[in-house]
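User: Hey, my collaborator sent me this sequence without any context and asked if I could get a structure. I don't really work with proteins. Can you help?
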Amino acid sequence: IETIESKLPLTSKMMEILQILREVKEISYKDLSQKLGISISSLRGLLTNMARRTSEIERITKDGQGWLRLKSN
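Assistant: No problem. I've predicted the 3D structure and written it out in structure-token form, which is a compact way to encode the shape of the chain:
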């Protein structure tokens, strides 16, 4: 199942997240969820699926809060 999931294309919302990350490099879950107009809970689920499909993102914790950043090459 993991192999199949890793080959699935990114959804339009996932592509939107990547575009935002390319502009800002790093963003909190709170700010990102507000930009996307979705709840933090929905964002977490989306990021879980996104992490299975791409290796471009990194989920981190700062000051006890969830953050997302673009992995450096």
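In plain terms: The helical segments are 2-7, 12-24, 29-36, 40-53. You can pass these tokens on to your collaborator as they are.
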